[in-house]
Amino acid sequence: MRKLLLLLSLLPLFSQAADYEKVSVEVTAENLNGSAYYVPGLSGAATEYEGFISNAGFIVTNEGVVVFDSLGTPSLAHAMRDEIRKVTNKPIKLVIVSHYHADHVYGLQVFKEEGAEIWAPKGAFDYLDSETAPNLLDSRRTELYPWVNDKTYLVEPDRIIDQDTEFSLGSHKFLLTYFGKVHSEGDMSLLSLNDQTLYSGDLIFEGRIPFVGDAHIIKWAEALQQLSNVEMEYFVPGHGMASDQPQETMNLTYRYLNFLIKQLSAAVDEMTPFDEAYTAIDWSEFEDEPAFDVANRKNAYAAYLYLERVL
Ligand SMILES: [Zn+2]
After folding, report:
1. What is the distance between the terminal CA atoms of the chain, rounded to a whole angstrom?
2. How far is the CA of 183 from the centre of ligand 1 (A)?
3. DSSP secondary structure code for residue 50 in this structure
4. Which of 52, 142, 177, 265 is 20 to 30 A away from residue 69, measured at CA?
5. DSSP letter string over 103-165?
């Protein structure tokens, strides 16, 4: 009888684990400051390393856990959940989504199913209601199979944040800064005030050329200016290593965006065709940075089209 009871009590554990295909990449939480942790993704393209190419984080308070971003597959989120469980048994109360890009939101279902509330910046539904969202999920079900599969679904936020918002959980205080359409259709950062740790989402790519895509780069550069005035001890970028040198961590993205704006604004002003402008620009300051070859021309073209629209 005792054996049977033991078996029954273990059943939910087994069935939960079976829902998510195991990952072979190592998902490890690092403690930064006080109760602030982050899970550093690897440096690679969207479908490399089983999709483990972005960062996420979590903060443990006396009343529960606040998670920041959910990684690029439910399997990765489940591995992150296991890391949280090594630190605390407290409930996961809240997931803050920096922005709706696949590599930050595909793990949401794991936390939602556990009862966490999901908060996301205004603009989340621009993504969720777009054609890109189901199309990308379809292709990721092949490219990231079996970690993204038929059981993977997009989770809608429970609450939309459209202005700077302070909140607390237990004795812990937090500040959400809403930036509007910056790197994506809506971005926000999370500052854990008790730990002086800032989670920036994709406002910052450390150690590699950022993904510009559909970004609004002038506003993005302005947001970085704002970010550089925040008082903090630790900085966690959306991609790349966290550090206790925030200005250094922000440096590459800041320089790169301002370079794109300066060079391509001049080209748009002079009505120089893109190809001609691209070839004439001296990229040597950035050409040795990781992801330059795959990202730079696309970024420059996206920036050119954007500047043509807004200048
Ligand atoms: Zn992104």
Report:
1. 76
2. 7
3. G
4. 142
5. HHHTTHHHHHHTT-EEEEETTHHHHHTSSHHHHHHHHHHHHTTTTS-TT------SEEE-S-E
Ligand 1 centroid vs 54 CA: distance in angstroms?
Answer: 9
Instruction: Kindly report whether the global pTM for this prediction surpasses the value 0.85.
Output: yes
Distance 186 CA to ligand 1 centre (A): 10
**Across the chain, which distance is largest between two alpha carbons, in Å?**
83
- Residue 1 is predicted with a pLDDT of 47
Architecture category of domain 16-245 in CATH: 4-Layer Sandwich (3.60)
Q: Which residue has the tokens 């078996």?
A: 7
Spacing, Cα 206 to ligand 1 middle (Å)? 13
Residue 22 Cα to ligand 1 middle (Å): 24
pLDDT of residue 18: 52
86 CB contacts (<8 Å, ≥6 apart)? 29
Q: Tokens in use for 34?
A: 């006080």
CA distance 299 to 88: 41
Protein residues with C-beta less than 5 angstroms from the ion ligand 1? 101, 202
Distance 200 CA to ligand 1 centre (A): 11
pLDDT exceeds 60 at position 10: no
Both tokens of 285, joined, read 């300051």
